[in-house]
Amino acid sequence: MADVAERAGVSTSTVSRTLRGLSSVSPDVRARVERAARELNFAVSRQASSLVTGRTGVVAVLVPTLKSWFMGSALSSLGPLLRAADMELALYVIPDLAERASFFEQLPARRNADALLVHCFDLTEEESARLDDLGMPVIYVSQHAEGRPSVYVDDAAGALSGTRHLLNLGHRRIAFVQSPGATGFSFSSHERLHGYRQALAEAGIALDDSLVVSARAEDKRAVAEALGQLLGLREPPTAVFAEQDELAATLITALRKARIEVPEAMSVLGFDDQPLAEWFDLTTVAQSPSEMGRVAGELVLRLINDPEADHERHIVLPTRLIPRGTTARPPGPATEDENPS
Amino acid sequence: MADVAERAGVSTSTVSRTLRGLSSVSPDVRARVERAARELNFAVSRQASSLVTGRTGVVAVLVPTLKSWFMGSALSSLGPLLRAADMELALYVIPDLAERASFFEQLPARRNADALLVHCFDLTEEESARLDDLGMPVIYVSQHAEGRPSVYVDDAAGALSGTRHLLNLGHRRIAFVQSPGATGFSFSSHERLHGYRQALAEAGIALDDSLVVSARAEDKRAVAEALGQLLGLREPPTAVFAEQDELAATLITALRKARIEVPEAMSVLGFDDQPLAEWFDLTTVAQSPSEMGRVAGELVLRLINDPEADHERHIVLPTRLIPRGTTARPPGPATEDENPS
DNA sequence: TAATGCCGTGACAGCGCTGTCACAAAGCTG
DNA sequence: CAGCTTTGTGACAGCGCTGTCACGGCATTA
Predict the structure, then answer these.
(1) Which of A69, A75, A89 sits opposite B90 (nearest CB)?
(2) N or C: which end of chain A has fewer CB within 10 A?
């Protein structure tokens, strides 16, 4: 910076002011400084300025993985947004519980970021409490954190409308398939199940726990077994609501293999609307992770600029039902069932 | 840090030495300092230390998007590796040409990282030259950069073995479908085409340019049209080699719609082995982006630690052919064709 | 016993910026 | 035209660390 100052014939103070875009610099000095900076290929050192300002210009982002469509989309919209605000994005990929423990042990983001964005982790209260002590805004994305700023999709409402759609088609026996993660069922999982149950209750249909089964989405064998449980019931379902599209796709594959036509003999409904859904022509409840990334990014920038302000703490995003080809009226005399007693 | 020093009854120098793990600290002092640091919830400020050491502890990573399976997998393996080496990962998502121009204009990574990892961009020579001036190691991932360190998959060899597989099955009319990106055909694209041609040449089959068509993978209509070109030939192909799995999946969908059985009437071969391939039971040439991320991460760490060392500049990763259900012998009296004159 | 070397520790400057204050010059006001 | 404000600029301390150097104490050697 001293070099630039010398070349432009001004003090380093003035160079600093110019490069930060402060207004109290006369136009010709500004021009001289900018030229000098360009000629010398100069860029301010973030390290040095953050040392004095106390702001790092970094947003730390915690994600469990980047392999999922969801994370990829969220970060793909978050990234450019932060860059436009002249912020860096420090990424922490925490793939398993061991890494997670070591992360919370060291908390490497501690003094090295202005805010933290935590994606989809379903943290324990203890973990959240540690993050509270970080001394920076922490935003929970795609999960609900009591009393802390968070951005998430309205899973319950989505599942509610999805289930209603199946009911409206005439289905009365509707199964729900859940997928547990490494630390049990996620918050989203619970909410979606809740929405499903609410829709059934609303329609006056008694809950039947044998219609709710679970299997890890990645484990095709387990999914097939879960399907088997449903097919072996005295009164099997005519529709299956899968908590995630991937699960739905696996179910469809298994159903086809068993020569059970989708949607003629069995309707399948997904949740997410990831690219796979289109390949499978899957009716699904869409959420938009890129929208979520954008909203979370905007919130984080607001919180950095005034952490005290009374921002909306919980931003809940809507879902949309996308009708495609895997749902239809149930087999049999559905017309008569449509106006139940 | 002063607080820790006071609490432990030592100087800040000693605290610094302890926390950096230098050996010249007596065991009991080390224990005292570590306890004090833990009790005060202290972590060193990277900004401050990088100011004096000149090393930022950051690896900047440039990616075009994170929505692709490829990027997600690469970063998912890179992330934990860098964290294990106590490095931060600064992510720059550059989705379009405008962002790209502005990135190269500002070069925000300039003094804020120790190394730069550039993924899949097919940079112009001018852009690469700018990066050379950055004063830090720059590693090109999944692309070939003349005279600069890079990590990429052996696309030509992969396409060669893929095409050979089709030839071995008895196919003689084999089409190749390419997908152009925003800046034309990628390096990989060219290499794969090259491998395809080489296999044909090797088998003594004359190249027929009408068998090489192109369509953007995302544009299903365009892919269908490209397929139409092939089907409208006087002597249509019996197999199609798609440059990417997504393209292959779109082709399969279009073929099914046209009631052309895969693989009975037409074999389809992909390239990538992304999750979609398994859903489509697609025979494909597999590459491993997570392996690539790992290798790139190791290389970057080596280059940071001694930039002058004579490291292997180009790391070429192998591909593997994954036989699945979308390739078969060509229709008709293939047995006779198998030993061509 | 004196000379020598090594080990563990502390003092202190300085990394590259920014914020504060001081100050000169120019523009107002009555 | 004196006295005020406003504007643009420079000097300088200090952010939180680390690297260097100096120094006291102990072990080793002649």
Answers:
(1) A89
(2) C
Query: CA-to-CA distance for B143 and A141, rounded, in angstroms?
Result: 34
Q: Is the pTM of this model over 0.85?
A: yes
Mean of per-residue pLDDT scores for chain B: 92
B113-129 pLDDT, tens digit each: 999 999 999 899 999 99
**CA nearest neighbour of B34 among A165, A105, A269, A309:** A105
Query: Is the peptide bond between B95 and the residue preceding it cis, with omega within 30 degrees of 0?
Result: no
For A241, phi and psi rounded to 5 degrees?
-105, 115
Give A16-67 as a DSSP string. HHHHTT-S-S-HHHHHHHHHHHHHTT----HHHHHHHHS---EEEEEES-S-
Q: Find how far residue B119's CA is from the centre of its chain.
A: 6
Say if the Cβ atoms of A95 and B80 lie within 8 Å.
yes
Please list, residue by residue across A199-217, b when 16 or more beta carbons sit within 10 angstroms of its beta carbon and e when fewer do.
bbeebebeeeeebbbbbbb
Q: Search chain A and give the residue with CA nearest B63.
A: A76
How far apart CA B276 and CA B72 sit, in angstroms, is: 14
Q: How far apart, in whole angstroms, are the C-alpha atoms of residue B38 and residue A311?
A: 33
Model confidence at B341: pLDDT above 50: no
DSSP string, B77-122: HHHHHHHHTT-EEEEEE--SHHHHHHHHHH-TTTTT-SEEEEES--
Per-residue model confidence as pLDDT tens digits over B221-234: 999 999 999 999 99
| Cα distance between residue B323 and residue B306, in whole Å | 42
Percent over 90 (pLDDT), chain A: 79
Whether B279 contacts chain A with CB within 8 A: yes
Which residue, among B56, B62, B67, B106, would best test binding to A if mutated, counting the most A CBs under 10 Å from its CB? Answer: B67
Instruction: Please state, rounded to an integer, the average pLDDT across all residues of chain A.
Output: 92
Alpha carbon of residue B187 to chain centroid: 12
What pLDDT does A311 receive?
64
Please give the pLDDT value at position B338: 46
Of A67, A73, A89, the CB nearest to B91: A89
- Structure tokens belonging to residue A262: 């989708």
